[in-house]
Amino acid sequence: xxxxxxxxxxxxxxxxxxxxxxxxxxxxxxxxxxxxxxxxxxxxxxxxxxxxxxxxxxxxxxxxxxxxxxxxxxxxxxxxxxxxxxxxxxxxxxxxxxxxxxxxxxxxxxxxxxxxxxxxxxxxxxxxxxxxxxxxxxxxxxxxxxxxxxxxxxxxxxxxxxxxxxxxxxxxxxxxxxxxxxxxxxxxxxxxxxxxxxxxxxxxxxxxxxxxxxxxxxxxxxxxxxxxxxxxxxxxxxxxxxxxxxxxxxxxxxxxxxxxxxxxxxxxxxxxxxxxxxxxxxxxxxxxxxxxxxxxxxxxxxxxxxxxxxxxxxxxxxxxxxxxxxxxxxxxxxxxxxxxxxxxxxxxxxxxxxxxxxxxxxxxxxxxxxxxxxxxxxxxxxxxxxxxxxxxxxxxxxxxxxxxxxxxxxxxxxxxxxxxxxxxxxxxxxxxxxxxxxxxxxxxxxxxxxxxxxxxxxxxxxxxxxxxxxxxxxxxxxxxxxxxxxxxxxxxxxxxxxxxxxxxxxxxxxxxxxxxxxxxxxxxxxxx
Length: 528
Description:
The protein is mainly α. It has helices at residues 4-11, 14-29, 50-69, 96-100, 120-135, 144-150, 154-162, 164-171, 177-180, 234-245, 257-270, 301-307, 310-318, 332-348, 352-356, 358-363, 376-386, 391-401, 411-428, 439-453, 461-474, 481-492, 500-507, 509-520, and strands at 36-42, 74-80, 140-143, 186-188, 201-205, 210-214, 220-224, 230-232, 252-253, 279-280, 283-284, 325-326. α3 packs across α13 (310-318) and α20 packs antiparallel against α24 (509-520).
């Protein structure tokens, strides 16, 4: 009988392929730490967005896959580059004028514009950590400011100073002429202003552990590179972090391919092997533009979780990580229903099929056991037909459709009802546009209403769907999808909708027949 590791490899799921690469790395290079270190990086210059969460989620998926294939312990570090100097005030924060007065200072030295934490970085770090904690990630949070100022990075910074010329040889060819004139791996923190300075380094002393720069008034200032008196430019910083912490695996966006190459070269100069990883494609907003923390375009974590579960968000991140995907509100319903489909399949699967199912990677193999027999799309349309934002109204239909179902014994379905009502309220209801049926559609609708009126309560969805198909064929709809489009536009006020037989089974055959009769009379269906 095949072992879990063998079945996992046979699944060819991308997290297992990544885990195999990491095992090959350990076999080749050894591992004297006694554990494997995964890392994700975060720049807290703006509010966390889904891309940030996605990197932690995907890394966790590889970590879970690695645990199936290897007995070597693992750790995950979520690292915040919160000592960076703020170069631009984000567009989506309050008190922007106040923040503008602190441009150039480390993010941990800028007051919190939200007024809830000791600094802007602490606020944004807390937002990220709160979500990671709510989702149940196992991780260790590292702050760049704490690592620099506590001395944790001191040895690595001294090593960077020893390799100063070699690091410059890597970086200078990558820069424009004007940038080369002022570039240094080390950025002194000005003792007078507290700003992170991008100034030429006129001298560096590896024995003393210092760098010297000329400030704006012409005075020469010598500062130690340790103890938080300097920080590194981000590519050398990334390499130094890999070296100092012993990072084995870190993934990054496709926009950082060249940066990974440069940082990897510097890491080798320092004396360590750079981590393994892979490049994922970036999310895009509804206009196809890259999502930016400072712009606040695309979706925030909180916005997704208003309308859908964390599990659906995890599925969106799991699917096709090397493919650019549009991240906007209209992808939420489809993703929720895809998650439910995978969850239902997972219960029927075993062996490598389970390891290939995204649900295994989302839940680490411990998938929820609750059956969810109703799709998100149907719940949204039920809310529309009932013209309600009251969960109790929808549960009245659900309890009749699913024998013995209650919010208490179906908590996942209950949450889904809440998400569906919120999504309907904010996105579907404002855009509903009903139309009158054509003569051909009217005749077909008359027959459908009569057919439904002749059905017994509790008729199966498949039987209802069969009759709908047959009526569409008899009335000459070609292609047949035009018949279903007519049902959606006339009865639901939208061009797309759920499997109509399933909707009618949930709403009730008599109630659906009444809905059709109201539409044929020209009544306002936007009113309950």
